[in-house]
Amino acid sequence: MKEVTEFLKKAGVFYLGTVDGDQPEVRPIGVFQEYDGRVFTAVGQHKKVYAQIMKNPKIVICAMHDNRWIRVRAKAVPAEQAIVDRVFADNPFLSTIYNEKSGLKLGVLELTDGEVEYCSIMGPDRTEKL
């Protein structure tokens, strides 16, 4: 998982795809963490994306860096509180958005049951289990 995490950190911004009914939805996000070989992302619980994931947990993440790109297909499930705490500790800017004063909550999601495609401009070079 280190390779995925490092790639996404280098890319900076990556794109999260979900489904809303029969319509695909894609948006840029920037939080991706790895803890003990498990990978996590996060979105605001007040956003449509969170409701979409709760209804259909199948997601796709895609990012490009230096003419290479990756695609992560996985199931996104809510993470336990200990992981939420770690995500806030490792991303202090999140506390300026998600706090008691704003009333906004962050949905930290573990990516499970997935695969990663490592790609060149010509398409996938290799695929691995997440």
Give a description of the structure:
- The chain is α+β, with helices and mostly antiparallel strands and 130 residues long.
- It has one domain: Electron Transport, Fmn-binding Protein, Chain A (Pnp Oxidase, Chain A, Roll), CATH 2.30.110.10.
- It contains three helices and eight strands; from the N terminus they run H-E-E-E-E-H-E-E-H-E-E.
- Strands 1, 2, 3, 4, 5, 6, 7 and 8 form an eight-stranded antiparallel beta sheet that branches.
- The chain is globular.
Task: Give a short synopsis of this structure.
The chain is of the alpha+beta class. The chain contains 3 helices and 8 strands, in the order αββββαββαββ.
Number of strands: 8
- The CATH topology is given as Pnp Oxidase, Chain A
Helix content: 10-25%
CATH homolog superfamily? Electron Transport, Fmn-binding Protein, Chain A
| Low-confidence runs | none
Please give the structural blueprint.
Blueprint (H helix, E strand, L loop, with lengths): L1 H10 L2 E7 L2 E7 L2 E4 L2 E7 L3 H8 L2 E8 L2 E11 L2 H10 L15 E15 L2 E7 L1
Antiparallel strand pairs: 1-2, 1-5, 3-4, 4-7, 5-6, 6-7, 7-8
Features:
alpha+beta, Pnp Oxidase, Chain A, eight-stranded antiparallel beta sheet, 3 helices, 22% helix, 51% strand, globular
